[in-house]
């Protein structure tokens, strides 16, 4: 199974690793501080719970708490009490574990 460290290392590349699910692609772009590309990915998969969750994370990252809460509700989650950075790490770990199933 790829690790969070492997995923972080991949951020040095110019494109996400192949065959990542959309939620991880969005997290990859977010990890490279390319909010717009990450947002484009999740907008293209609106209604998919995983991408709605990343959509929430992105709006939380930009400081739009009201919009973030909306997307967390759509994803069936509460807004976490973690820092943005810790949430990103937790989401990467969660989705990497699922991708390995």
What is the compact description of this entry?
The protein is mainly alpha-helical and 101 residues long. Helix 3 runs antiparallel to helix 4 and helix 4 packs antiparallel against helix 5.
Which secondary structure elements does this structure contain, and how are they paired or packed?
Blueprint: H1 4-10, H2 22-31, H3 35-43, H4 49-61, H5 65-74, H6 84-100
Number of strands: 0
What is the helix/strand order? HHHHHH
Please work out how many helical segments DSSP would assign.
Answer: 6
Helix/strand structural class: mainly alpha
Low-confidence stretches at least 5 residues in length (pLDDT < 50)? none
- The dominant shape is globular
What radius of gyration results from the CA coordinates? Answer: 12 Å
Q: What value does the average pLDDT take? A: 96
Distance N terminus to C terminus?
9 Å
Describe the fold and architecture:
65% of the residues lie in helices and 0% in strands. The chain has a domain at 46-101. By secondary structure, it is mainly alpha-helical. The termini are close together.
Summary keywords:
101 residues, mainly alpha, globular
